[in-house]
């Protein structure tokens, strides 16, 4: 599998942009060596090698389609996280039900991503009371007063 938009870290490990963004949403350490990563930097050398390989194998269309999908997925993750944390930051120290975060969202794909990100963020930046598979689960920012 070819990495899309390869990114590297201070530790020297490289990952595709979607993979590392998803990982860094829940853990700020490198998935391989567990060192703190800092902000990922685009790996232009690996990207150039990847593009040469794609061109030599006539994989441009498939690569482009996957690139569009991954860009959309990263944007969806960022929008979902922004809605979650903005919704909770507006109510410091208070809890809210997941259904309150998604009730004004018309985009079903975004609603689904919000639910997914809430499950991933529990223990990282969020705390919950109730069943995470249910929209009535109560969530709050981690370390908020109850």
UniProtKB/TrEMBL annotation:
Residues 11-34 form the RING-type domain. One of its GO terms (biological process) is DNA damage tolerance. One of its GO terms (molecular function) is zinc ion binding. Keywords: Metal-binding, Zinc, Zinc-finger. GO terms for cellular component: nucleus; Rad6-Rad18 complex. Coiled coil: none annotated. It holds the Pfam family zf-C3HC4. InterPro entries: Rad18, Znf_C3HC4_RING-type, Znf_RING, Znf_RING/FYVE/PHD, Znf_RING_CS. This is RING-type domain-containing protein. It comes from Caenorhabditis nigoni. The gene is Cni-T02C1.1.
């Amino acid at each position: 599998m070819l990495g899309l938009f390869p990114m590297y870290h201070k530790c020297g490990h490289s990952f595709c942009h979607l993979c590392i963004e998803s990982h860094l949403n829940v853990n700020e350490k490198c998935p391989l060596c567990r060192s703190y990563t800092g902000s990922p930097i685009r790996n232009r050398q690996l990207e150039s090698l990847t593009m040469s390989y794609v061109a030599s194998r006539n994989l441009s269309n498939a690569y482009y389609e996957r690139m569009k999908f991954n860009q959309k997925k990263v944007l969806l993750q960022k929008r979902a996280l922004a809605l979650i944390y903005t919704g909770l930051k507006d109510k410091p120290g208070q809890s809210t039900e997941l259904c309150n975060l998604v009730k004004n969202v018309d985009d079903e794909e975004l609603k689904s991503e919000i639910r997914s990100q809430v499950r991933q963020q529990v223990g990282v930046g969020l705390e919950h009371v109730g069943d995470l598979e249910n929209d009535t689960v109560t969530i709050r920012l981690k370390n908020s007063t109850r």
